[in-house]
Structures are given as structure tokens and as C-alpha cells.
Amino acid sequence: MHEHPTRPAADEAGSGTDPDGQHGLKDSGTADVPAGGKRRKAALAGAATAVLVLACAGGVVAAGSLLPNAASSRSVQPAAAAVPAGTSVGVCPGPARLLEGTEAGTDPQFSPESDTAATSVTGAVLGTAGVVPGSRLSQLGGAAAVEIAKAPGAAASEGPRQELLAGTVSGRTVDSVSVLSADAVANQKASAAGAMVFRATDGDLQGSAAANCLQPSNDQWLAGASTTVGRTSVLVLSNASSSPATVSLELFGGKGQIQAPGSRGLLVAPGTTRSVVLAGLAPGEEQLSVRVRSTGGPIAAAIQQSVLRGLTPGGVDFITPGTAPAVRQVMTGVDIQDAAGIAALTSKPGYADAAPALEITVPGPSDAVVEVKLHGRDGQKALPSGGVITAKANSITEVSLAGVPAGNYTVAASSDVSFVAATRITRGLQVNQPSDVAWAASGIRLGSQHVVAVPRGGTRQLVFGALDTRATITYAAITADGKVKAPATADIAGGTTASITVPNEADGAEVVGYVVSASGDAAYGAVLVTQDGRSDVSSLPFQAAAAGQETVPVALGY
């Protein structure tokens, strides 16, 4: 290498070196460039080129963002995937039992039933596609007690409409909680319904208590309990699933929500029942509503409610869940006795709750202004209270239904605030004579093909209520031989209630249920069960029809 005579002294002192250890150039335009200088110039040129490429690439990206997305990058709506239909399950409460010993604890012990007490279950499973689903009545967590129908083969092929048929169980005696279950057919959930009835003619639990076999749920409301002196309320929690359930209770009384130690974290093992004495959680409550929520397995909940006025039996009932809080609640199958007789009875000490009444529970933070309408056989009846009341937030308000002519009624309550409701029914007008009590839970609006089980014994009535305008009801009897009879039709004027007496037999076979459908305006239904010569009474709201094929949206991604 030779030295450049024109290179400044500062450069020779090393003002900067490139990665190869060569001195940087101050003037890139010098004609005489050494080898190291050439490499430096090439590097600079390459860097400039890289900047240009990046700038061009950025332009491409920016331009690309303005172009339509490629098909593979567009958002796609989630596809609807069919959910496999599961087994239809109804949990039937067991016999009513007397508490033994103190009620202070929440885990009770029971004494034996009376000599005359008897409990039975009646049910029906509707056939579909020409076959009856595999179905059975079994003990909770135990072996099948009755096989209703064997698992069928393939469903009938499409063609002419198949005649309806059913599998039935009629008046099967049970001594514990039982489960009516029916398998899905052709990926359709089976339509099934069951009802239990308890009857006793002696002892402290004289009377009758009927209840639907309940579909388990993770959230449900029960209204109508009482824990004052002489009133016993036992919450029965049954787990018919294969998963443990952890249950939490929310309690509401006449003075507000009740914070009760021991009401949370109640474990109910699979295939078992747990009983909770509500007086141990909320003593001295004239009105008590319970919200039952569970995590894990769903629960079937019912409250065994009994009344003892001194030494006189005042009735027994199973309180079952009504509909969830809503701005309108409807209860039908409400039987009201003679107004003068009720007034004379309730004036006696200890008989204040021996009258019909509507109980409204407002679980939210706002008061509810509620309008109550009572629809009878020939139209709406005026209530002595005027029909408009204010129900306090987070508490229970009772509305008397006494003072109207005797008969069957539909109770409709509406508000701009969601609430829960149930109606008390009483029978028996003689002091110091056995009487009975029942609670009509709020029911669902009728649609198509509800299966309705009818308990055996007593006088049974199908009670229908239409609210605003005319509704048409079709009902077809199900007989114990598995036949579904030709349907009959009832046309119900708006704002009225109609009752149809259930015959013991149809064409020589015992009637065990009905297939009911409704069209037109909103209509509601219940089975009202009474006993000739006795004060027995029970009311069972119609259950929801089986759901059709269900789908859920499924999105794939990462």
C-alpha cells in the first residue's frame, strides 16, 4: 500500500474505522479509492438498496391492506352442530314422612308412615316414528323397578304418518324417590311425563300430596314454604345424575332475604337424596321462598310441606318448582271454596292461613307494582283488594284471593319487574276437622304435544285457562294399554277457565294421561286432583313439551 499525500492528519489519527479495520472516507467522490474503500462504498450502496427494498415492501403491505381479503382469511360464521339428544329424566318425590325429634338440625330423621299411607307413580312415554322409546321406572340410584318398554330397533322409515302409541306405568307402588327415564330415538328426546301421589287417612299427614316427576335443573325456585309453629317444611334434594352436585340455597321471607349459615356448599352425591329442614335455616317464617342452585350435577328439588293445627291435621303437599322470575306469572288449577265458609274459618285462632292466597317473591332490588287478575268459568272476577298491589323488593308479599264465588280459577299476575309466584289452595271448612292444603306453581304457556300424567284415584280434572283472547285446546287420552285415543277439542274464550273431568276409563282401558296441544292465544293447564267425601286437594301444572333437535354454534380457531 502507498500513502495518499492529500489524506488529512486527522484521518491518520483514526477518526473512524469500518468493520474491516480500514479508515472511513471523508469524501466519497475521491477518484483514487483503495481496495478497503471500494468495499466500504459497496456496503453503503447495499444498505441504500436494502432501504429501498424495505420501502417498496412497506408500500406493498400498505397497498395490500386496501385490497379485498383472500377467501382463506375472511371471517366465517360458526357452523351449527347438532347436539346429541339425551335421556329424558323425571325424578318423582318419595312418600311424605313425619319428622322425628327436633327440627333444629338440617339433616332430619323420619318416623314410619301411618298404616293407611300409600304412594304410587303413574307415567306415560309417547312413541315416535312408530316405536316406543326404551323406558323404565327405577329407584333413585338403583335397579329398574318396572321396564316400560324395551330399547327399540331402527325407527320406521319415512312414509305415511305413524299412529301415536305410548308406553305406560299405572299406579306403581313406591316407597322412596323414583326416576322415570326414557331413551332418545332417532336423535330426538323422548316425550314423557310422570306423577306421584301420596294419600293417608290417618295420622298427622292426613290428606293427599301429588307432584309431577321433575326434570332436574341447576337453577330453580320454590315458593310457599312456612316454618312457623305447626308448619313443617323439608327440602328434598335428589341427584339422579352421575356427577356430584354442590347446592347453594337463597332464602326469602316476608321481611327480606335471609342470610342463613349452613345454606351453602351442600353436597349431594350421585344417586342419592339429601333432606334439609328449612326451620333450621329460617325459623319462624310465615312465608318462605327458596332458590336452589347447583354446580356439577343437576338437582330435582321439592319441599314436603305439612300443617298441624294443635292436634288437627291441616294438610300435606309437595311444593315443586315454578317458572323462573318473569314479568308475568300464571297459575291455573286453583280451586276456591265458598267465600262465606272461608271467612268464618279464618276468623278462628290458628286458621289465618286456611284461605286461598297468592304469594309474590321479588328477588331484585326494586319494588314491583303487580296487577292480579282472577279468571273464572264465566270471566274475570274482581278481588276485594282491587287487584293492584306493591310487592316489596327482596321479600315476599301475600295477596288474599278469598271473597270470590267458589270454583276453578286461573290466576294471572303481571308487573314491570321480574318476580316469582305461587298460589295456595285450601280445602276443608270445619274447625277441628282435618283439612288439606296445596300449592299451584306458576306454569308454562302451552304449545304442541305436552305429555300429561294423571295420578290414579280421586276426582281428576284438566283445568285450562286462556288469558286475553280465545284459545283452542286439543287433548287425547292415553290409556294403560298403550293406546292414544282420538283427540277432542275445547274452545276456550279469552279471560276464562274451563275444566274437563278425566274419566276412569276410555274404551275399557284405564286413563293414565293425555297428549295436549294448544293454539291461538296464550293458554295454561294443570291437573286438579280432589277426593269425594274428603278435603284432599292437589294441583299439578303441565310440564314443558320435549325439546326438538338442538344445535349449538361451533367455531374452529387457534
TrEMBL record:
The chain crosses the membrane at residues 42-67. Coiled coil: none annotated. Residues 1-10 have a biased composition (Basic and acidic residues). Signal peptide: none annotated. Residues 1-36, 94-117 are annotated as: Disordered. Keywords: Membrane, Transmembrane, Transmembrane helix. InterPro entries: DUF5719. It holds the Pfam family DUF5719. This is Secreted protein. It comes from Pseudarthrobacter chlorophenolicus (strain ATCC 700700 / DSM 12829 / CIP 107037 / JCM 12360 / KCTC 9906 / NCIMB 13794 / A6) (Arthrobacter chlorophenolicus). The lineage of its organism: Bacteria, Bacillati, Actinomycetota, Actinomycetes, Micrococcales.
